[in-house]
Amino acid sequence: MTNHYEVALYGEFYAQDLKAVLNRITLHSESATRMHTREVVFEPIDATQQREAGQDPILLRCKKDLSEPRAGWVMFCYLKPESVRQHPEATVRPWATCQVMTGDALSFASALGYVRRTQVYKKGYSFRRGHLLIQMFQQEQVDPKTQKPIPAHADTLWEVEVKTANPVRNTQETPLSASIDAILEVQLLMKGLLDLRRQDV
After folding, report:
1. Number of domains in the chain
2. What is the CATH number of the domain that holds 131?
3. What is each CA distance from 59 to 38, 71, 197, in whole angstroms?
4. What's a BP term from Gene Ontology annotated to this protein (predicted)?
5. Strand runs (DSSP E) across the chain, as ranges?
6. What CA–CA distance (Å, rounded) separates 144 from 172?
């Protein structure tokens, strides 16, 4: 069985550089839309015991596009990134994803024996470049009473994720090297304005 992978690079910049970064990414992208998403991260009930035993628990992530009223939940998980020796240029990690067509993904995750760990709202812009997705966003805080997002402060750091839009199989037809090369093209395009780098979190 062939694993599916995500290939990604990450960066961040200050709000004062927003216009310049936005213009450059827009110039080299095929489409651009506003984005507003909610992501809830779950961990296994026995995550603490797994960590004490030296294992990395598999986290479930439930994501919903808030800018599209009819959008359903997407549930996905990542495994541990491949070693830096194997892929020094970009973060490459096994990735599984599924659409939750009906019902509530959060209840479904709980039924699988997972408990909620964190929740985050992301608001900004989403771009497509070939088979890559470029997301540029600020994280919003969560109101503890309503669980609704609180708009980010104007000075909040902007984050950028450049990644494969869909899971990639490492085959002769779709080698991982092609996705890594596409990601590195974006890194080169943003040089001098935005430092995109590998991240193993």
Report:
1. 1
2. 2.40.320.10
3. 16, 22, 23
4. termination of RNA polymerase II transcription
5. 4-13, 31-44, 60-65, 73-78, 91-100, 114-129, 132-142, 149-150, 158-164, 168-169
6. 49
Q: Judge whether 33 lies within some domain.
A: yes
Cα–Cα distance measured from residue 95 to residue 79, given in angstroms and rounded to the nearest whole number: 7
CA separation for the pair 194, 157 (Å, rounded) = 13
Cβ proximity of 10 and 149 under 8 Å: no
Task: List Cα–Cα distances, 8 to 54, 103, 136, 171, in angstroms.
Answer: 26, 30, 13, 18
Q: pLDDT per position in the chain (201 positions), as tens?
A: 458 999 999 999 999 999 999 999 999 999 999 999 999 999 999 989 999 998 888 889 999 999 888 888 989 988 888 888 889 999 999 988 877 766 688 888 888 899 999 999 999 999 999 999 999 999 998 888 888 899 999 899 999 999 999 889 888 888 899 999 999 999 999 999 999 999 876
Residue 191's SS3 state is coil
Taking the complete model, does pTM exceed 0.85, yes or no?
yes
Tell me the residue range of the domain where 81 lies.
Answer: 4-189
Cβ atoms of residues 183 and 91 within 8 Å: no
**Residue 138 contacts residue 36 (beta carbons within 8 Å):** no
